[in-house]
Design goal:
By secondary structure, this protein is mainly α. The chain has one domain. Helix 1 packs across helix 6. The radius of gyration is 20 Å and the shape is globular.
Length: about 160
């Protein structure tokens, strides 16, 4: 009974802190995405990538699209590797807390920088999904659960990241 009440309380917290703001954001997607783009561009305007692409003058999606050509991993690889090697902000102002490594099925494995903000965004999306599932049928959370996860650390780069 106590666990059911604790779960219900947790889901109500998710409702107010994650679900409702998400629903509000869906009512004005262009404005929300524009604010997010401005925040990301502003946060990264002093990186090497940001300086090379004029982030300090970008105020809209049109500005961004005109200043930043479509990128591939290969066009970003040197920024990622330089930032990892030197610790200087090349692609992101924030240092990655870890890297996701692709399987390399189409060539050499790729290192995808994972920032603390990335982890927080993932946690928010998990909270939203949990609330939606609980609202649809709370029985999904009762009984046993099988969790399939990767090891806490699959490897480390020379820098320790």
């Amino acid at each position: 009974m106590f666990l059911n009440l604790a779960l219900w309380a947790r889901m109500q917290l998710f409702r107010w802190t994650h679900w409702r703001p998400f629903v509000q954001a869906t009512k004005q997607p262009v404005e929300v995405q524009t604010r997010l783009l401005r925040r990301l561009v502003h946060r990264n305007c002093d990186t090497r990538f940001g300086r090379e692409h004029g982030f300090s003058t970008i105020n809209s999606y049109a500005d961004f699209a005109a200043a930043v050509p479509i990128q591939t991993y290969e066009t970003l690889r040197s920024y990622i590797e330089d930032q990892e090697r030197t610790g200087e902000p090349a692609l992101n102002a924030a240092q990655p807390v870890m890297y996701a490594r692709t399987s390399g099925t189409t060539g050499e494995a790729k290192l995808i920088p994972i920032l603390q903000d990335t982890i927080q965004a993932h946690k928010r999306s998990q909270a939203i999904q949990s609330y939606v599932q609980f609202s649809a049928d709370a029985r999904a959370y009762y009984g046993r659960c099988l969790a399939i996860v990767s090891p806490a650390e699959e490897g480390a780069l020379d820098s320790g990241t």
